[in-house]
Amino acid sequence: TKYVYRFSEGDKDQKELLGGKGANLAEMTRLGLPVPPGFTITTDACRAYLASGAVPEELSVQVTRALREVEEELGRELGAADDPLLVSVRSGAKFSMPGMMETVLNIGLNDESVRGLAEASNDPRFAWDSYRRLIQMFGKTVLDVDGEHFSEALEAKKASRGVALDYELDVEALTELVGEFKEIVRTHAGIDFPLDPRAQLDMATEAVFRSWNTERAHLYRRREKIPHDLGTAVNVCTMVFGNMGQTSGTGVCFTRDPSTGRSGVYGDYLVNAQGEDVVAGIRNTLSLADLESLDRDSYDELRGIMRRLETHYRDLCDIEFTIERGKLWMLQTRVGKRTAAAAFRVATQLVDEKLITMDEALTRVTGEQLTQLMFPQFDDDTERDLLTRAMPASPGAAVGRIVFDNAEAVSRAEAGESVILVRRETNPDDLPGMVAATGVLTARGGKTSHAAVVARGMGKTCVCGAEALEVDASAKTLRVAGREEVFTSEDVIAIDGTTGEVFLGEVAVVDSPVMTYLRRGLEEALDTAGDVDTRELVTSVHRLMRHADKVRRLEVRANADTPEDARRAVHRGAQGVGLCRTEHMFLGERKQFVQNLILADSQEGREAALAELLPLQKGDFVEMLETMDGKPMTVRLIDPPLHEFLPDITELSVKVALDRERGTLDPADERLLSVVRRNHESNPMLGLRGVRLLLTMPGLIELQVRAIAEAAVERLAKGGDPRPEIMIPLVGSVRELQVVRERAAAVLAEVSADSGYALDFPIGCMIELPRAAVSADTIAEEADFFSFGTNDLTQTTWGFSRDDVESVFFKEYLDLGVFGVSPFETIDERGVGRVVAIGAERGRETKPDLKLGVCGEHGGDPESIGFFHRSGLNYVSCSPFRVPVARLEAGRVAI
Ligand code: ADP
Ligand code: MG
Ligand code: MG
C-alpha cells in the first residue's frame, strides 16, 4: 500500500485519502504557490494503525524515502547539527475539525541542532525559543503532560525577568526554560524528552493517529455527524518561521468576510509570532490592512494568491500564511467555514461575478443555515444597558446568566437554565461548555480565534475580543472597564453576535430581517432593513428561495390544525396543508360530547351527542378551507387512542372508592368507571386508535365526513374553491379502507344530492404500519393518495414507542453507534426508508399516478427531504416554521 504522498503528488479531490489539509496543500503545490515542501501520510495508514495498534512497517520505510527527498530538495537534514531541517507534524482529516487534532511544530530540534539553527538563522534567541516551544507542544500533545505545568514555568520565568511578553525573554532565560521544560517532561511523562529527530517525528505521527479517538474528537464528530471510522491523515511540512524577528509574522485570512459575507478580504496578522499564536488569541492581532504598510511586497503577493485561490476554488477560501524574513509562505487553505448570512451573500455574489451558476449557488447554502437566519434578534427599540462592544464573531441574540467554567455551564444548562459562557479566551477543552451555553463571550482573540471559529461552526452566538472585560475565572467575577459593579454568576447578560454588543440584563428579542422577509415579503423586509448588509442578505435569500422554488420537484405543504397555523404556512410558501389533525376538535370543552358518545347506550343518545359536535366541527373546517382556498387541504380523521377522551383511570377509581365509602357515590360515575376500565389499554399507541376507532364507534366517520362536506358546500356557495382531501390514519388492511371509503362516499353523495354541488373529494390513507407499506399494491386499489406518517412508521418499524425510548436508552444507543442520529430526527434510510420506498413502489404498481406525500416531522428535516425526493414522492408536509427550509432543501436536492 502506498501510505505516503509528496505534496506534489496529490490534489484537492483526494480529501478522503489525504485529508482536507493534505489535499489542499497538494493543490496549492500543483498551482505553483509557495508551499514549504513536505508529504502526507494517508488516512489508510491511520486506520491501519488504529486497527492494529502499531504503525505498519511499510509506512516507516516510505516515510524515510519521502523525508530524504525533501532533504535533498532543500539540501538540509532533519535535525542535523548544522542548518537543520525542521518539520511540523499536522493532523488533517477529511472534514476540518478545529482544534480537535494536535499539531506539533519545530520537530527536529535537540541540544545540538538548536545550536545549528541559532547559527544558520543568526538569531540564538529565536532558536532557543523554537526549542522550548517544541518541548512544550510535544510534551502536551504527544506525551500528555498537562499544559499548565509549562505555562506556569513560562509565567514564572517572565516574572523573574520582569518582562510581560514571551518574546521579551532573552537567550539565557530561554535556555534555562528548555532545561526546566525537559525536567517537567521527565517528572510528568516518566520519560526523557526524545532527542532523536526521527523518534520525535514518529512519536508525533502516532500521537496524531491516536488523537482521532480522544473524547473531544468523538464529541465533535457526533455533533457534526462525521463518521467515526474515517481516520486522519498526517502532514509533515518543512518549518518556516514567523518568529524570526520584526520582518516575520504569521496570519490567517479570508477572501471575503466569513462573518457578514461582505465582499473584500479579511484577516488577522501577528508580527514575530509562530503558528497558533494568532488563533489562540493570546495577543491581540493586527488587521490584514496593517500588513500592507508593514510589508508591501508580501501583502501584494498574498492578495494575488487570494484572488487566484478564490477563482480556482470558486468559493470563499480561508488561508494560513507565514512570512519568514520578508518571504511569504502558504501553510493552508480550504473552502472557508462561514456564517449562515455569509453563505447566502457569498453565493449570490459569486453568481454576480459570474464565477458560479445559480444552480451551484443553491447548493452552497443549506436549510440549516436558513434556519439560523430565522432566529429572532434583539429589539433595537428597547432600553438597553450597553456594557461594551467587541468583535461580532458568530451571529444571533443570546441572553443568559454568566458562567465562568465548563462544568458549571454544563450543569446549569442541564438544569434548564440559559447561560452565557464568559472566558478570557477559549481552547479545545472548553467545547462541552460551548455546547451547553446559549452564547459565548471572550475577552481576547479575533474573528479567527478558537472561540469564534468553533462557535460559528456550531451556529452559536459569539462575541469575542471584548478587551474591556476583566474575567477572573477562579473568583467567578467579571469586571468591565469604566464600571463600578462586579458581576457574578447571578447576573444576566445579553450578547449580540451580529453587532458585537454586550448588554447587562434581559433584552427583548424581535424578528430577524430574514424572518420579516419570509413573513411579509421582500419589499417590507427591504424597507425595514437597517443597513446595506441586511439589504444584501435579504435579497440573496430571496433570490435563492425563488430559484429553489423554480427547480424543485417536491411540493411543500404544511402540517396545520388551525386557521392561524394555516395562514402562517401559506405566507411562508406552503402549497397546501398536508396534515390537518382533527383531534383537537374533540378536546377541551368538547370532550364532554365525545364522552357522551362513548357512553351512549341508545341510538338517540348517540345521535344527540353527534348532533352537538357536527356544527362545531363544520365551523372549524369552514375557516380552514377559507384560508386554504384553492389549495389542497388534507384532513386526517380522528387518530388518537380512545382513552385520551376518557378520564384518567387511577383518578376516577380513587374518586369512586372514596365516594362509595362516604355514601356519596354518583351512579353516573360508577358507570363511567366501568366504561373506563373496559376501554383501558396497556399499549394505547398500538391500541384502539386511527381507523380502528373510526370503525368501532358508530357515527364517527359520518360525523367527520359530513362536517367536511357541509363546510365545503358553504364555501362553494360563497364562490370559494375548497379542496379537502380525506385521510384515514393507521390503515393496515385494504378492507379497513374499503369500509371507511364506502361510508364516506355515501355521506358525500348525500350532501352532494342535497346541495347540488359535486363533492368528489379524494379519499386516501396514511401509510404508517409496515403491513400497509408491504401490501400497498392492494391498499392502493382503494386509495386516491398515500401519505407516509413517518413518526408512527418509525415506531412501528423499529417496534419501540418514542415516548418511552427517547428518555430511557437513546443516549446509550447514540453512544454505541446503533443510531448515528435519532431516527425520529432524520429518516433511518436503511430501515424505515426502505419501508417507505416499498410502499411507494407497490402503490404505484397499482396506480402509476398515485399521489405520495410525507407528513411526519421528517418532512421538515433537511437530510430526509433529499431521501423523499429520491424516492419519487410528490410532496413533503412539515410544520409552518420549517416550510421555507423544506422549499430550499427541495430545490437543492433537485440539482
Ligand atoms: P490546525 O488544523 O489547528 O489549523 P495546523 O496544522 O494548520 O493546525 O497548524 C497549527 C498552526 O501551526 C497553524 O497556525 C499553522 O499555520 C502553523 N504551522 C503548521 N505547520 C507549519 C510549518 N511547517 N511552518 C510554520 N508554521 C506552521
Ligand atoms: Mg491550520
Ligand atoms: Mg400516525
From TrEMBL:
Please report the stretch or stretches of sequence annotated as the PEP-utilising enzyme mobile domain.
Answer: 417-500
User: NCBIfam families, from UniProt?
Assistant: PRK05878.1, pyru_phos_dikin
Name the PANTHER family for this protein. PHOSPHOENOLPYRUVATE DIKINASE-RELATED, PYRUVATE, PHOSPHATE DIKINASE 1, CHLOROPLASTIC
Q: Which SUPFAM superfamilies match?
A: Glutathione synthetase ATP-binding domain-like (SSF56059), Phosphoenolpyruvate/pyruvate domain (SSF51621), Phosphohistidine domain (SSF52009)
Belongs to which family? Belongs to the PEP-utilizing enzyme family.
Gene3D superfamilies documented for this protein: 1.20.80.30, ATP-grasp fold, A domain, ATP-grasp fold, B domain, Phosphoenolpyruvate-binding domains, Phosphohistidine domain, Pyruvate Phosphate Dikinase, domain 2
> Which positions does UniProt annotate for Mg(2+) binding?
E768, D792
- Report the EC code(s) recorded for this entry: 2.7.9.1
Organism of derivation: Actinomyces slackii
- UniProt protein name: Pyruvate, phosphate dikinase
Q: Which InterPro entries match?
A: ATP_grasp_subdomain_1, PEP-util_enz_mobile_dom, PEP_util_AS, PEP_util_C, Phosphohistidine_dom_sf, PPDK_AMP/ATP-bd, Pyruvate_phosphate_dikinase, Pyrv/PenolPyrv_kinase-like_dom
Reaction(s) catalysed (UniProt annotation): pyruvate + phosphate + ATP = phosphoenolpyruvate + AMP + diphosphate + H(+)
Query: What cofactor does its activity depend on?
Result: Mg(2+)
Domain of life where this protein originates: Bacteria
> What does the record give as the active site?
H450 (tele-phosphohistidine intermediate), C855 (proton donor)
Q: Does the keyword Metal-binding apply?
A: yes
Q: Name one Pfam family in it.
A: PPDK_N
**Every PEP-utilising enzyme C-terminal domain range:** 541-891
MF terms (GO), sorted A to Z:
ATP binding; kinase activity; metal ion binding; pyruvate, phosphate dikinase activity
Where on this chain does substrate bind? R581, R636, E768, G789, T790, N791, D792
Q: Which UniProt keywords apply?
A: ATP-binding, Kinase, Magnesium, Metal-binding, Nucleotide-binding, Pyruvate, Transferase
Please list the residue ranges annotated as the Pyruvate phosphate dikinase AMP/ATP-binding domain. Answer: 58-284, 292-343
